[in-house]
Amino acid sequence: MILTFGQIFQRSYHEKSLQAKITQVQSQCNILASQVLLNEFIISGTTDNLNEEIDQFANVLEGRIIIVDSDYKIIKDTYTIEQNKHMMSNDVHDIMLGKVPSNCKIMNQNQYVEIMVPILDSAVMTPTIDTNPTPAKNSNPPSPQVQGVIICVFSIQDLVETDLYMQSQGRFLYALFIFIALVISVLLSLWISRPFHVLNQQIQHISEGHLDEEIEIEGSTESEDLAAALNQLLSKIQILENSRQEFVSNVSHELKTPITSMKVLADSLLSQEDTPAEMYREFMGDIAEEIDRENKIINDLLTLVRLDKQAENMNMNATNINQLLELLLKRIRPIASKRNIEIVFESMREVIAEVDEVKLSLAFSNLIENAVKYNRDGGWIHVTLDADHKFFYVKVADSGVGIPEDCQEQVFERFYRVDKTRTRETGGTGLGLAITRNAILLHKGAIKLYSEPGQGTTFTVRIPLIYIS
Ligand code: ADP
After folding, report:
1. 428 CA from centroid of ligand 1 (Å)
2. What's the 201 CA to ligand 1 centre distance in angstroms?
3. Residue 342: per-residue pLDDT
C-alpha cells in the first residue's frame, strides 16, 4: 500500500516536472522564433550573433535545434547534418498549414523530448485550421501566419536522474519504515505480553502451594481485570480449602472422641486387679455405647458423602408425600411416646410430588427426630403439609429447647452442635441437619428455621412439585 502510494506520488511528480520543463523550453523557443522572424530568417552573419546563440541554447538543452523556413528548407541545424536540406515531415507540414502543434514527443527511451514551435508573423493573418473542428470553430478569428517551424529536441536526463534518485530514496524510506514498524511491533508485543509473563510466573508460584498470596499485575486495564478475577477465584479456592481442612480436622476429632473414651474405660479395667464382674459389665456396656456412637458418626459421614456424590444421580419418582410422612411418623411415634411427646400430623391436601423418596425421607426423619431429641418431656410436635400449584411445604414445629439466634445460621454446618454436652446425651453427631439441607438442595428446595430459646423451633421446607434438573 505504502509502495503503491509512493509510486503514484513519484509518477505525478515526474509528469509535473516534465510539463514544467516543456513549458519553459516552449517559451524559450517562442523568444527564439521572434528573433528569427526579426532577422528575416537570416541566421549566420547577423549582428546580434543569433547563430551562436542558437548553438548555445542547444548546448544548454543538451539537444538539437532545427529551424525550417516557409519553403520547408532547414536554415539551421545545430548538428549541421540536415543544414540546407528540406524537411519533408507531416508534423511540420501540419504546422505550416496553421494547425496547433501537438504538445511533445518523447524519444530515445524517455531520455529526449521533441517539441515543435511555429514561427508566427502577426503582420500576416490567416484563418485558424483546427485538427478537430466543430461548427462553432468556423467563427474563430484569423490568426498570424506561420512563417516557419522551430524543432527543438532537448534532454530530460536530469529528470530521469531525479526520478532514479527519488526511487532509491523511496526504497530506502520504505525499508526504513518496515524496519521501524518491525521494531515498534516487537516492542509493543513485548510490552503487551509482559503482564501475562508476570501473571504466568505468579500463577506458577501460587500453584506450588502459596494459595494465600495475591496476584498483582500492573499494565493495561484488561490485565488488571484479569488479575482481579483470578484473585476472586483464588479466594474462593482458599475458602473451599479452609472448609475442607476444617472438615477433615472435625472428622478426626469426632472419630477420636469415642476411641479415647473406650481407651480410658479399657485401661481402667486393666489397671485394677480382681475387678468385680458388675464393674466389667458396666464398663463393657459403656464401651459398646461408644462403639455405637462411632458407628453412627461413620454412617452419617458416609450418607453425607453419598449425597454430595449423587448430585447427578437422583432417583426421581412421583411420590405421595402424605404417605411418606405418615410412614416416618409411624416409626418415630414410639420413641416420642417414651417421653410423652405428642406428635400431630396435619395435612391440608393430598400432595404428589416428583422426589427421590430415600433422600427426602432422610431429610424429614432428621427434622422430626431432632424435634423429639431437643424437646422437653411431655412436649408436642406439629407436622403440617401444604401445597400450591408449584411447591409443597412441610413444617415441623416443636415445643423444645429452641436454638439461640446467634447459632441459627450454623446449625446446618457439619458437626455443629449448640450444646455439646447435651448432644452427647442425645447421641447427636452434628451431621443430621447438614444431611437434611443437602437432600433438600438436591431437590432444588429451601429450608428455613424460626426458633425462640425455651419456646420451641419450627423448620419450614419448600420443595418444587415437579423436579427440573
Ligand atoms: P445432631 O446430631 O447433634 O442433632 P444436627 O445437625 O441434627 O446434629 O443438629 C445440629 C444442632 O442443632 C444440634 O446439635 C442441636 O443443638 C440443634 N438442633 C437441631 N434441631 C433442633 C431442634 N428441633 N430444637 C433445638 N435444637 C435443635
Report:
1. 8
2. 48
3. 97
H/E element holding 433?
helix 432-442
Say yes or no: 354 and 429 in one domain: yes
Please list, in sequence order, all residues whose beta carbon lies within 8 angstroms of the beta carbon of residue 231, skipping any fewer than 6 positions away: 214, 215
Ligand 1 atom nearest to 429, measured from its CA: 2
pLDDT for position 422: 58
pTM beyond 0.70, yes or no: no
Positions of the chain with pLDDT under 50: 131, 133-138
Residue from 370, 380, 401, 419 whose mutation best tests the ligand 1 pocket (most atoms within 8 A of CB): 370
Distance of CA 246 to the CA centre of its chain: 38
* 15 and 150 together in one domain: yes
Ligand 1-lining residues (CB < 6 angstroms): 366, 370-371, 374, 398, 400-403, 411, 416-419, 423, 428-434, 457
Residues 295 and 340 both lie in one domain: no
What 283-288 contacts at long range (C-beta under 8 Å, 24+ apart), as own/partner pairs, is 286/261, 287/262
Report the C-alpha gap between 252 and 256 in whole angstroms: 6
Q: How far apart are CA 412 and CA 438, in angstroms?
A: 9
Distance (Å) from CA 52 to ligand 1 centroid? 129
- The parent domain of residue 78 ranges over 2-121+144-155
DSSP state of 310: G
